[in-house]
Amino acid sequence: MSEGLEIRDVGIRHEQLKPPEKECDDPLCPWHGNLKVRGGLLVGRVVKAKMRRTVVVEREYLVYIRKYMRYERRRSRIHAHNPPCINAQPGDKVLIGETRPLAKSVAWVVLGVLERGGGEG
Questions:
Q1: Which of 13, 41, 70, 71 is least enclosed by beta carbons within 10 angstroms?
Q2: How many separate domains does the chain show?
Q3: What range defines the domain where residue 114 resides?
Q4: Neighbours of 46 (CB within 10 A)
């Protein structure tokens, strides 16, 4: 890296997660700022990136319905802060981590892009 900002260890051990190559001066970045990541980790797909530094991540999961002895597919959408050094775009598969509340509906932050996707939306 260059001699600018240093990269913090965010404390997340994931086989595909690497620190971003770009640097940013966002105080809400877990890599270059002072935002702590605690709680849950989720993997999802970015469906919208139209807000400033915020993306909408959708994750799919299965729920067992005992009456019919089958699974149904459900989806949930989570707003997550998108630091400029990561810059996730629609269609990307991302790892997000839970943080303190950053806004009314934002309490997650994008930690890294696991797989770049096509530009949907």
A1: 13
A2: 1
A3: 1-8+22-121
A4: 24
